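Worked example 2:
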Amino acid sequence: MSIHPPSPARVVLLCGPSGSGKSLVAARSGLPVLRLDDFYKEGDDPTLPLVAGSSDIDWDHPRSWDADVAVDAIARLCATGSTSVPVYDIAKSARTGEEALRIGRAPLFVAEGIFAAEIVPRCRELGLLADALCLSRGPFTTFRRRFLRDLREGRKSVPFLVRRGVRLMRAERSIVTRQVSLGAHACDRDEALGRLAAAAEPRQAPAPGAPAQDQAPPAQTQTPA
């Protein structure tokens, strides 16, 4: 019996400020999930950016993350249904191994992380993008959720978490504005789940002579007010 290769899949990129609920929405979608946080650079990488006027590494800057490797993993998942991904320990700022991620014949998966918007243009150019969403819950809500999560998981020292939390709370509106400018659609949890469900619906072949259309809603670019 012949084994047919998986049909090409597409990706929904799910971004938003740290603490906005990306992991929860991705899990509730019921779709396979690629964690983009596992593509952080290691703590001894000389290219890591620093917070201005500080010796702290700026883990919220896109240059702290390996976009090229992340896009390669997404492309392999879309083409073959499987890829190898790093296992990253945030508390140690280090990759501790690799693991296989398999989505099989699933036609859609979610890639979630704070830098997901950075690769929207590349995934669109490669024909991999189904949608791009930016979660936004408000600076005070995300500050509380982010701090409690990071404290519970022991991600960094308490002073570092406080400094980072205050900095991100002040910058949240500009973070969302940037992610929207890169092609992500700003939405709350319920709208994100609705768009994910719509994107997961089977695409139907067009009637003879009719132009091909995507049933999934396209990623939208908004002009910041």
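The domain at 10-200 is CATH 3.40.50.300 (Rossmann fold). Confidence is low (pLDDT under 50) at residues 1-5, 210-225.
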